[in-house]
Amino acid sequence: MAVLGKDLFDLGRPDTHTKIQFGDRGYWVEMSTDCLPYGTILTEILNLQAEDYCAKLSAVEQAIAARNRAQLSRPLWELMDAFTALPLYRLYVEEPWTAEPDLFQQLFGAGVDMMLAKQALKKPDVFLQKYVRARDDILYIQERYGWFLESLLEGQPFEKKKGQRKLPLAQQLVDQFLDAFVSGVSLGEAIQVDAPQVNIQYAVLQQDGQPPELVEKMYFDRLLDFVYVELMRGLQKGYVPKRCANCGRWFLQLPGATYAYCDGPAPGQDGKTCREVGASANFQEKVRNNEIWKLHQRAYKKYFARTRKGTMSKPEFEAWAREAEQLRDEALSSYENAGTPEEQSRILVELKSALNRR
C-alpha cells in the first residue's frame, strides 16, 4: 500500500481521527488492506445492540459524579474495552489502553489504574468526550438512518420479479421526497446537525497482486460524519442497507441485487439461512397462486419420480426439464396477457398436453 510521508509522521493524531481511503468498489480504514463495501459500517451500526456500551458509559459517568476514584478504575477499563469493540473503531483500535494513547505514554507502569481515574476526574468532560460522542452518534444513526432507509424502500418490491423494472436509488429518493435530506444536514431533523465539512486528498493505493488505484483520502473525527459519507457514496454506486423480511436484521444489498432476505441464520430453522427459507416460502406461494406453476410442478414431480424408479434416464429427464422450463415461461407470458377466461383455459390445456407428451 502506498503511504504518503504525512502518514508516516502522523502517528500521534487522536485515535478517533480516522483515515479512510475511498475507491471505486469500497474503502480502506487506516492501514488495513481489506476493502470494505460501501454501507458495511452503517449496516453493522444498525444491527448493534448498543445497550451494553450505554450501560458501561453510564457506570463511568455515575462514578465520576460521585467523585469516587476507588470505584472508577474498573468501569473505566470496561468502557475502554467496549469502545474498542464498536463499529469502525474495532478495525484499528486494537487494545483497551490504546483508546487513551497519549495518557498511557505517560502513565505506563505501576499505579496506572489510579492515575487513569485521577485524569478522568480532573477533566471529565474532556476525558469522556469521544465516548459520549460515540454513544450519541450510534443512537442517532440507528434512529435517523434507520428511518431514512425504511422510508427510501417503502412501497418498493423487496425482491424484483421477472420483467419488473428496478428503480434507480436516486429516483427512489425523489419519489419518496427524501432528496432534501441528503444535503445541508446529515439526515438531521434540525439544522443543528450539520453535514460534515471534509477535506479530500488523493493518493495512489498499491496492493500486492492488484493494479494501482487512485483513491480519495479523508479524515473523520466523528462516527456520524463518516457514516454520512459512506451512505451517500454507497447510494451513488448502488449499495444500500436493507431489513431482512424474515428476521428483521439489516443486511447490505449489493449493486444489481434485489434480495428480500439476508444470508444469516434463520431463527428456529435448524441451520437454514433466511434467504433459503424465504426462497422456499416464495416458491411455495408462487406455486399455490398460479395455475401455470401448478401444472409445471405436477409434471416435474411425475417425471422426477420416474428417474427414481429407473423408468426414465437422468439425461432424458434433464432434457425434458429444460424444455418444460421454456414451455412454462412462454405460457406464463401468454396467460398473463390473455384477454378472456376462455383463452386462459385454452393455454392451460395446451401446456398440460405439452408437458406430459413423453
Report on this model:
With 358 residues, the chain is of the alpha+beta class. The protein is built from 13 helices and six strands. The chain has a four-stranded antiparallel beta sheet. Helix 2 crosses helix 7, helix 11 packs parallel to helix 13 and helix 12 (314-337) packs antiparallel against helix 13 (341-355). The protein is elongated, with a radius of gyration of 28 Å. The protein starts with a helix and ends with a helix.
Quick recap:
With 358 residues, the chain is α+β, with helices and mostly antiparallel strands. It has helices at 5-8, 40-47, 51-65, 73-83, 101-107, 112-122, 124-153, 169-175, 223-237, 274-288, 291-309, 314-337, 341-355; strands at 18-22, 27-29, 201-205, 213-220, 240-243, 250-253. It is elongated.
